[in-house]
């Protein structure tokens, strides 16, 4: 009965988060009042039930605004949510005055749950019998708080640039379950420092074992991999390499696509061997699989990057008679067809390693990593030979592999943000009817506007336009 009670409580919080402002609608203390380790575990993972809990509904505005997909004007006009339609063309105000934004509210409800758990843990005595569970629960709460804060930063803040991060606006950092506390935005530097600190703390607490199923719980390899992802976003390639190595040394399985039934609609199990940590983004028509959104197509420029023998063409896509591609469910198989995987997997860690080695000029190491990937992505008789002209060419080849391997995970938005900071001048383009739209490099629109109600209620500083 107690488990059902806490599952209901968490479900209620997330439902409220979609409709009410985080600060306007306060959860009743009688609904959420955990006292034991079992209570804390239930709050953090909802008993491992898929589709509800802290692993799901991460912001997907960046995915909506990326260039991995396209549709025609009629399909664009038929989208249900204004933010989906407006993110597609990078409108100034994608919400059209709507004061409530689920992408913001869901993040802060998740952070609230983490803070509740961390607060309860202070009053639980640690014993020999409960120490392992206590540590894992604390590490899990710190891990979740870090990745939800990171999701906020990637959505509502400008890209990290070490030259300007001290003066750029970050997010309000919440460390207490007291939601009456009004906080202003920290700097971007402080925001990333807080994220990294939570993840660093989790390293000494989380389980080292990577489970074969129910990979909703974070583990040591996932925490190291997440640190590598975040340091990559920060263009700190030394640290990204360090933590990617630590993740790879703990767990490094790769799927051999030769062994998969690639013609199936759902090729991958959500607990497949590559998944280090399962989580998904909030779903929209733009992020749905082909069967649910047959007029939402994968960008043709992305499809052209694949070699004709690449097994990912079969595993990732279906094609119509006009050779237009729809995506399959990829690593979120078994969940809603519109929810894209944004968790962590060993293929991403491998590509972080490859990019960092390429940037350091370690071309042999980068070559070996790409060769390892290709052995598992091509027929055994058609494995491409990896050659680099120089370090810049090696970096570009790895970046192309990131596009091909990590599609519809939110990585394209993240990568373009960081690559434009270093001066690559990548421009997003859309065409609807006779009208063209552009998102220029380093545009202020790479930080989505904060919800109007948060500006009014908390006096937060709005992002510039």
Quick take:
The chain has 465 residues and is mostly helical. The chain is 44% helix and 5% strand.
Keywords:
single chain, 465 residues, mainly alpha, Serine Threonine Protein Phosphatase 5, Tetratricopeptide repeat, 2 domains, two-stranded antiparallel sheet, two-stranded antiparallel ribbon, 17 helices, 8 strands, globular, disordered N terminus
- What is the succession of H and E elements? HHHEHHHHHHHEEHHEEEHHHHEEH
Shape estimate: globular
Query: What is the domain total for the residues?
Result: 2
Beta-strand percentage?
A: 5-15%
Structural class: mainly alpha
Biggest sheet overview: 2 strands, antiparallel
Rg over C-alpha atoms, rounded to the nearest angstrom = 21 Å
Give the overall pLDDT as a whole number.
90
Strand order of the largest sheet: 1-3
């Amino acid at each position: 009965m107690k488990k059902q009670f806490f599952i209901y409580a968490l479900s209620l919080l997330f439902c409220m988060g979609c409709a009410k402002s985080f600060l306007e609608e306060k959860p009743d203390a009688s609904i959420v009042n955990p006292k034991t380790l079992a209570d804390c575990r239930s709050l953090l993972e909802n008993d491992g039930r898929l589709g509800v809990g802290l692993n799901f509904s991460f912001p997907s505005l960046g995915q909506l605004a990326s260039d991995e997909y396209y549709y025609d004007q009629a399909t664009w006009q038929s989208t249900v949510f204004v933010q989906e339609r407006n993110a597609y063309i990078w409108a100034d105000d994608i919400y059209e005055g709507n004061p409530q934004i689920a992408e913001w509210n869901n993040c802060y409800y998740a952070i609230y749950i983490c803070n509740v758990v961390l607060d309860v843990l202070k009053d639980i005595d640690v014993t020999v019998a409960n120490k392992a569970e206590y540590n894992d629960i604390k590490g899990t709460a710190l891990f979740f708080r870090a990745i939800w804060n990171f999701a906020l930063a990637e959505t509502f803040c400008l890209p990290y640039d070490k030259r300007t991060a001290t003066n750029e606006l970050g997010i309000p950092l919440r460390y207490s379950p007291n939601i009456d506390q009004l906080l202003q935005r920290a700097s971007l530097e402080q925001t990333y420092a807080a994220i990294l600190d939570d993840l660093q703390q989790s390293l000494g607490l989380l389980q080292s074992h990577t489970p074969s199923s129910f990979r909703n719980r974070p583990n040591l390899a996932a925490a190291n991999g997440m640190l590598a992802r975040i340091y990559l976003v920060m263009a700190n390639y030394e640290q990204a390499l360090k933590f990617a190595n630590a993740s790879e040394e703990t767990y490094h399985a790769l799927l051999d696509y030769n062994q998969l039934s690639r013609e199936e609609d759902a090729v991958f199990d959500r607990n497949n061997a590559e998944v280090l940590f399962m989580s998904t983004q909030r779903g929209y028509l733009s992020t749905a699989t082909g069967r649910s959104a047959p007029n939402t197509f994968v960008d043709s420029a992305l499809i052209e990057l694949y070699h004709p023998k690449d097994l990912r063409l079969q595993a990732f896509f279906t094609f119509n008679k006009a050779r237009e591609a729809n995506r399959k469910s990829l690593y979120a198989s078994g969940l809603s067809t519109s929810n894209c995987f944004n968790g962590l997997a060993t293929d991403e860690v491998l590509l972080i390693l490859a990019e960092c080695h390429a940037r350091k000029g370690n071309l042999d190491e980068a070559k070996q990593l790409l060769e390892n990937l290709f052995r598992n992505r091509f027929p055994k008789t058609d494995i491409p030979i990896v050659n680099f002209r120089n370090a810049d060419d090696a970096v570009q080849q790895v970046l192309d592999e990131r596009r091909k391997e990590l599609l519809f995970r939110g990585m394209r938005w993240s990568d373009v943000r960081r690559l434009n900071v270093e001066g690559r001048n990548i421009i997003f383009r859309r065409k609807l009817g006779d009208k063209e739209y552009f998102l220029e490099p380093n545009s202020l629109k790479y930080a989505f506007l904060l919800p109007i109600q948060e500006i009014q209620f908390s006096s937060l500083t709005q992002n510039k336009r």
